[in-house]
Task: inverse folding
């Protein structure tokens, strides 16, 4: 009562199953023949075309660096990802606010990720400040020979100074290919800090995490954690979160949020900067 049995099918089809197998074989031969023709023609289809093959006018080729590059040599995508940075060198100038120092304000300038050759090594330097050093500050260094007490007007209470100054330079070595959307870089350098009535300096070491949603400077997010004079009594921790977004091909807006932690006090900084991409 169910489906037809194999015996009944053979009775209705005198040629039997062998006929169906032969038909399948003929179909497979046609398919193999078609694939062979396609594979034979594939190299011709995959061969890259030069700008001259596209029948473009010389004016268009001269105005396009990309077409000129293709005319010299077909680029390697993997080489571009490995060697062409997803983030550019930036010159920075902007405004800084210090909420923990009576809302003192000042300026900020520097350079970010100046590439050294074609390697993952970059150099960065910056300075921010609010004004002159107050009269009653204490200088603390990681080096005992350099420690000195410059306290003046001892015994007299003064209003909390508003001075905030910092400057330094760092080397960063990006561990992943420069064209990656996510990168990590160890940081080592020197930093001088003046917070309230206290000044410190020393070796700055840490780690930087970089996220690049849009290559070429379009947008990026960076988180850096570092320590000045790590392990000493003058140790200071620096946590910096930065956002950058392009407004033109050569100009970007960037914001910095930084937290400074030491054994004696905590300070914060908020900055907004205009960045120029050379």
Result:
């Amino acid at each position: 009562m169910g489906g037809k049995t194999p015996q009944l099918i053979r009775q209705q089809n005198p040629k039997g199953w062998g006929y169906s197998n032969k038909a399948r074989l003929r179909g497979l031969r046609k398919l193999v023949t078609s694939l062979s023709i396609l594979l034979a023609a594939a190299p011709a289809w995959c061969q890259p075309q030069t700008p001259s093959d596209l029948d473009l006018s010389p004016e268009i080729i001269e105005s396009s660096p990309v077409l000129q590059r293709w005319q010299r040599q077909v680029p390697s995508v993997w080489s571009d990802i490995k060697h062409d940075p997803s983030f550019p060198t930036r010159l920075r100038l902007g405004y800084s606010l210090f909420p923990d120092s009576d809302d003192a304000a000042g300026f900020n300038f520097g350079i970010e990720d100046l590439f050294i050759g074609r390697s993952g090594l970059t150099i960065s330097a910056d300075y921010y400040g609010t004004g002159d050093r107050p009269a009653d500050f204490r200088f603390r260094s990681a080096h005992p020979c350099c420690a000195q007490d410059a306290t003046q007007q001892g015994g007299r209470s003064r209003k909390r100074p508003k001075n905030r100054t910092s400057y330094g330079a760092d080397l960063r070595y990006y561990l992943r290919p420069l064209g990656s959307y996510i990168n990590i870089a160890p940081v080592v350098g020197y930093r001088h800090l003046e917070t309230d009535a206290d000044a410190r300096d020393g070796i700055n070491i840490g780690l930087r995490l970089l996220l690049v949603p849009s290559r070429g400077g379009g947008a990026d997010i960076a988180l850096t954690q570092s320590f000045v004079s790590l392990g000493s009594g003058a140790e200071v921790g620096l946590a910096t979160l930065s956002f950058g977004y392009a407004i033109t091909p050569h100009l970007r807006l960037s914001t910095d949020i930084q937290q400074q932690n030491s054994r004696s006090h905590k300070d914060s900084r908020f900055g907004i900067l205009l960045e120029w991409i050379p």
